[in-house]
Amino acid sequence: MASKMASCIFCKIVKGEIPCFKLFESDKTLAFLDIMPLSRGHALVIPKVHGEKLTDIPDDHLTEILPIAKKLVIATGAQEYNILQNNGKGAHQEVGHVHFHMIPKPNAQEGLGIGWPQQKTDMDKLKALFEEIKSKM
Length: 137
What we know:
Blueprint: H1 2-7, H2 9-15, E1 22-25, E2 29-33, E3 43-47, H3 65-76, E4 81-84, E5 100-104, H4 123-136
Antiparallel strand pairs: 1-2, 2-3, 3-5, 4-5
């Protein structure tokens, strides 16, 4: 884990080794502009503690994330926007440190484009899945 942290670009940003356009900082959270934005105002909100996936981050390091994303929405004036968090390469995660995107969607060309491949469901199978997940909550 130490070697992953040492090479992690977001950990380097947290430590001040790489500069960023810092929008917010607390003891547990950092928000900054994305340097390869999908639209004007595209920003990232990250926990300062290193973890590759959401399940690797302690709950108390996640409490500020959505309130900060909300402040970014207000500060940018975005009327339509996406809050996005990817886990794993197959789910389009590029940097192996948990990060949340706030991506303004000002028009059809800018911002996040999404495919939503809905699948038909069998209600009996859905009920069984519901019972399985609910029992583990």
